[in-house]
Amino acid sequence: MKDILGVAILGTGDVSNGHISAYNANPRTEVRAILSRDKARAEAKAREHGLTHCRPYTSLDELLKQDDIHIVSICTPHHLHTEQGIACAQSGRHVVVEKPVALNLEDLRKLDRAIREAGVRSIVSFVLRWNLLFELIRSLLEEGVVGDLFHGEVDYLHGITPKLALYPWVRRREYGGSALLTAGCHAVDALRWFARQEAIEVFSYANTSPGNPLDYEYEPNSVTLVRFDGGMTGKVATSIESVAPYTFPIVLMGNGGTIRNNQVYSNRWTGQTGWAAIPTILPDSGSVEHHPFVPQMAHFVECIEAGVESHASVADAVKTHEICIAAEISKIERRPVQLPLA
Asked: Residue 98's closest CA among 22, 172, 200?
C-alpha cells in the first residue's frame, strides 16, 4: 500500500477551501498543516473542513521542518507566491501554486529555476484546464472537428469589487500587478491550451473606465493580441471592473468549422444548418466551488507518483506569464513585444 502524502496549505482565504476539499476527496492525500498570520484562523479553517490531524502554523520555516509534509499548496496573496514557492521547493516539497506565480519577470525566473534545481514536481492552479468544457474543446480539436485553428478569442470579464474579500489588495499595483496577471491570465492560459502553438509576439492596450470608480492603481481593462508560431492569431480581453455577471467567452475558428463556447459548427457534419449545442459544464462562474480542483489535485498526485511533470507545471506556466508581462511592456512602450522575453 502506498504511503499517504501529507499536505500543507498556505493561506486561509476562499481559494484554500477548493484546495482543502480536493485533498479531502483524494484517498492518497491528507491535509496536516495550515499556515496563517493568525493561528486562530488556521485552527478555524481546520475545524471547518473536519481536519482532525491538522496543525496550525504562523511560521513557514517551522512548518517546513516537519517531515510528514510532502506537498505544499500556496494559496496566499499574489506577491507572496514566489518567495514561498522557492522556500518550499528548496526544502524538497512538491509545489502547488495559485496564479499568478509571480508579478514580474525576475521573480518568475527565480521560481522556475528553484523548482528545476530542486527536482520537485509543480503545478500552477490554472484549474480551468480540468473544466468539462475545456476537456470537450480539446477533444474536438484533437479529432479535427473544426480543422486547423487560425484564430482564437478567450476573454475574462469579472468585476472585482469591494464586495469580494480579495478586492482591497488586488486593487493595489504591488499586489495585483496587472489585470492580466491578477485574473486574465486564466484566459491567456486557455488560449495557449487550445492553440497548441507557441506565442511569438504580443501587443496590448489597457485603460480605466471614466472616473476610476473602483480606485484601481493600474488599468483594470485590457485587450491583448497574440501571434503564434504556427500562424494563428489570438485575442484576450480582460476586465476586472466589468459591470455584468462573470463571463468567460471562448471562440475558436478553424478552416473546417468554429467553436463558440459549447456550440460547434463543422463542415464535417453533412446537413448541419446551424450551431450544435453540446451539454456540459461551462466556466461561467468565478466561485471557488465551481472550479474543478478535485481532478486537478488527482492529476498532480498521479504526476508525483509517476515521477513526471504536469502539463500545468511552473515551467509551462512561465509561457503564460510571459505573455502577460509582455502585454504590460507593450502597453507602456506602445510597441509589439517578441517572445520569449530576453
From this structure: 22
Whether residue 200 contacts residue 340, with contact meaning beta carbons closer than 8 Å, is answered with no
> For residues 58 and 39, is the Cβ–Cβ distance under 8 A?
yes
Q: What is the pLDDT of residue 1?
A: 43
CB 220 within 8 A of CB 208: yes
Closest to 170 (Cα-Cα) out of 184, 162, 182, 188: 182
Task: Classify burial at 150, counting beta carbons within 10 Å of its beta carbon; exposed 0-12, middle 13-18, buried 19 or more.
Answer: middle
Beta-carbon contacts of residue 128 (< 8 Å; ≥ 6 apart): 134, 186, 189, 190, 248, 283, 291, 292
Number of Cβ atoms within 10 Å of the Cβ of 180: 29
| Amino acid residing at 57 | Y
Contacts of 119 (CB under 8 A, 6+ apart): none
Which amino acid, one-letter code, is at 203? F
pLDDT tens digits, 26-42: 999 999 999 999 999 99
Other beta carbons within 10 Å of 288: 16
Phi-psi group of 142: left, alpha or beta (phi > 0 → left; psi -120 to 50 → alpha; rest → beta): alpha
d(CA 85, CA 330): 28
On average, the pLDDT of the chain sits at: 97
Cα separation, 89 vs 105, in Å, equals 19
Quote the CA–CA distance of 43 and 103 in Å, as a whole number.
Answer: 30
* Residue 294, C-beta contacts closer than 8 angstroms, at least 6 positions apart: 21, 22, 25, 26
Whole-prediction pTM: 0.96
User: In the prediction, which pLDDT does 2 show?
Assistant: 67
- Which amino acid does the sequence have at 194? F
Domains of the chain, with CATH numbers?
A: 5-127+293-312 (3.40.50.720), 129-290+320-338 (3.30.360.10)
Write out pLDDT tens, residues 186-218: 999 999 999 999 999 999 999 999 999 999 999
**Helix H or strand E encompassing 168:** helix 167-170
State the DSSP code for 326. H
Q: What are phi and psi of 79, to 5 degrees?
A: -70, -10
